[in-house]
Design goal:
By secondary structure, the chain is α+β, with helices and mostly antiparallel strands. About 15% of the residues lie in helices and about 35% in strands. The protein has five helices and 16 strands. An eight-stranded mixed beta sheet has the order 5-6-2-1-16-15-11-12, covered by helices on one side. Strands 4-3-7-8 form a four-stranded antiparallel beta sheet, with no helix packed on it. Strands 9, 10, 13 and 14 form a four-stranded antiparallel beta sheet that branches.
Amino acid sequence: MEFSILKKIWYIAILATFLASCEKDIDIDIPAGEPQIVIEGTIENGSPPIVLVSKSRGFFEPTGPADIANSYRSDAIVFVNDIELSAVCVEDIPDELLPQFSELAGIPVEDLDDLPICGYVGFDIEGNFDTSYELTVEVDNKILRATTHIPNPVIPDSSYFRLWANSPRYGYVFSRFTDPDTLNNAYRVFTKRIGPNSNDNPADDVYYAPFGSTFLDEFFNGTSLEVGFQRGQPFNSSRPEDTGDEDGFFEIGDRFVFKFCAISEPSYQFYRTFEQQLGTNGSPFAAPNNVITNIEGGLGIWAGYSCVYDTILATP
């Protein structure tokens, strides 16, 4: 018996030596992709169009706020419906537009002052319901185009806070609305905690889209339904109010705005695939997924929003 065990150990030692001798360092040279122009643009009912123009970044390039800010372009010429937009840099952006710049760039409002970001604003244009808008961007001897549409608004019958399961403190926002009897109506929602909050929770600087914020009426066309949503917060946030038991929840005492928007089907496809990529969080085991763009000649999104707002106090 002892001989048999020693023999097996000997075989394992030989096998390990053999495998070790077969090891070889392999260096894989991943070629850098050709940089592309990225458009981030929105136009909402009652607001001017805002467009950011940047260049795509390599997978292994630094992604700090300053690195991202340096990728934005200030030398483009941008038109919406043949009207040229004004180039405006952070230090000259009106205070009421700073949150929209922050949302598009993905950079907190308090960090914008320290970063060289410029964008394009159509001060003489205001978004209207049931209207289409053509975007043209000229940069690097290229012309990029996109078209979006601001739909007619869909106004929820009611929106309210409800405690989740058996929780005595935390819950979600729910909305009941009636979908128009036409196919491919799409929606996106946002939340913003505004205060004053009796629980001492801080207010948000901008509107945040919760995960799963975008949906299409393919399974409920023309019907009335109730849908629940998490509290929107920055992706991968480390803020105390976005971690622990409160992650994704509203708390009793919160005062917040629920922003309910109708969007076009192409905008839905972009945000749906964008959220899918965020959800994989770089996992090598996730199914491949490309973000669907509506920019001809580049990447990104030109989206029209038809939005209504409701202020809600979280009470049991």
